[in-house]
Amino acid sequence: MKLKIQKKRILHSIKRTSISLFLLWVVAMLINIAPNYEKDYLADKTNLIINNNNITSSLRSDIIIKDKNIYLSFDDVKNFFDEYLIIEGNNIITTSNTKTAAISLTDNRIFENGVYRNLQYEILKTDNKYYIPINKFESIYNFEVNYNKQKNIITIDSLNRKYVTALASKNLKVKYKPTTFSKTMDKVNRGDTLVIVQDTEKSTDVKSNGWVKVRTSKGVIGYVKEKNIINRTTVRENLEKEKMNGKVSIVWDYYNQYNLAPTRTESIKGINVVAPSFFELKADGSLAVNVGNSGNNYINWAKQNNYEVWPVLSNSSLNNLDAVSKILSTFETRANLIDNIINELVKINVDGIHVDFEDMNKSDKDNYSRFIIELAPRLREIGMKLSVLLTAPDGSDTWSLCYDRNTIGKVADYVVFMGYDQTVGSSKTAGTVSGADWVELNINKFLGQEGVSKDKIILAMPFYTRLWSEQDGKVINGKVVNMKDVTIPEDAEKKWDNNLKQNYIQYKRDNITYKMWIEDENSISYKLDLVNKYNLAGAGFWEKDREKEIIWDIVAQKLGN
Question: Which own/partner contact pairs does 115-119 have at CB distance under 8 Å and 24+ positions apart?
């Protein structure tokens, strides 16, 4: 009898344990199916939805709503809308795709794309932090802001992103997860408009097992069954930045400020961009302009041949590092230069600009980046491209370390890696102007340590070399020789260097040894192979009329233009 009772107790115990385990499993499944921790955690906060992503938990400061304005902290605006947002002097300076603006902290004004206007709002300062009324920045950042007071949700939609809507075909419950058992987040009525959440990488609906992710008019995000939505409408597509068709192939037409633009009548095979020397920087931030009738004729010739024109802006004739420093030092002086650039570009109706600032103080690195950051939106507003020359990394202070290649690479449409001079004319050791191994090493530096995207990099290559003369083992001269003018004496010793991808010659005259690493169709061909190997944006050539005519056939073949 006792044994029977014990067995019964054991069975009851097992049964209770089984029921408890089952209930625990059910609870676990319900938690897994309908977790709601994030919503509970954020229930007492103003929620912020940016492009259908709830980023409330990532905010560094709480949102302030005051006088119908929605204030985000300076750090949050910098984090989500403008990584280059800064405070300089008495201004908050911000940039977007097509706007550059300085908001005064002292005199209630804003300077936006070259125009001053009075502010209709204030910048708050609380607990030593600045707060910006983000709803007043819709035109600057090109987004739309809405606030649902009932749900305490703010939605911000970028107007350059894909936006798809649909109608509910019946009364629906919007679920937290794509399953019927998930918690209901919101309810919509038949005919209500829903925003279809897009996968930003694929530009397609976010779907799962017959469910589609949506956002309601109240800003609530969740899932409904796809079969229960109708009348899908694509309100707008992603706005893509205008790119060149195929590889960029740019040739520089250099002439100094005392000469006129060259007269061109023939087309140049294989190129699609020309860069004439129209602009030189002056010490007061204005431009020395060298266009005139000859320049206008040059532009007309380029347009007739379907070439884009990106005039060069250079600081070379200024030859004053301190003057450049002064121009770059403040927002006001940079804005003055930018206004001058925009006015001149619009006047001659070209397609972009090539900024070629060389030989700057290392201390100007950040201010030069600011100049490019603030110039880029102004150019995009008028549909013009920005190309910026950069030297090889890891060189001298004023030649190499004065550039923030990563920042410039993000902001500009293109950066030109000047693949020369590997060995400068003042060197005490003879060497090549542009060896393929050195060029490739620095392409990898641009891509790797500098973090510049391959589709931004234009590899510039030289149409010249140097004839070195040595006496008693010491260099006495490194004379520039144009590619088309290279001559090889019959008694010269000629060798192919497979690392440099160049022919090397050496010969003697009157106790002087001459050396040359030759730039020709062979060396240029290998450099063009590097453009294709790394799938770079294109190639550039310094400069027109130094080349051999056969070069253009090779350029057209290698770049496919």
Answer: none
Give domain 46-144's CATH number out of 3.40.50.300, 1.20.1740.10, 3.40.50.360, 3.30.457.10.
3.30.457.10
What does the block give as tokens for 240?
């893509």
Tens-digit pLDDT profile for residues 39-63: 444 668 899 999 999 999 999 999 9
**240 preceded by a cis bond (ω within 30 of 0):** no
- Sole residue written with tokens 């910098």: 78
Structure tokens at 388: 């910026």
Q: Name the DSSP class of 266.
A: S
Q: What is the pLDDT of residues 388-430, one digit of tens each?
A: 999 999 999 999 999 999 999 999 999 999 999 999 999 999 9
Q: CA nearest 278: which of 318, 323, 310, 316? A: 310
State how far the alpha carbon of 273 is from the alpha carbons of 122, 307, 311, 554, in Å. Answer: 46, 5, 10, 17
Distance from C-alpha of 486 to C-alpha of 349, rounded to nearest angstrom: 38
Give the list of residues 6+ apart from residue 219 with CB closer than 8 angstroms, or none: 47, 49, 146, 148, 151, 153, 154, 155
| Cα–Cα separations (whole angstroms), residue 301 to 272, 274, 387 | 13, 11, 21
What is the C-alpha to C-alpha distance for residues 428 and 477, in angstroms, rounded to an integer?
A: 9
In degrees, rounded to 5, the angle at the alpha carbon of residue 375 between the alpha carbons of residues 155 and 447 is: 85
Class level of CATH domain 161-236: mainly beta
| 245 Cβ contact partners less than 8 Å away, ≥ 6 residues apart | 272
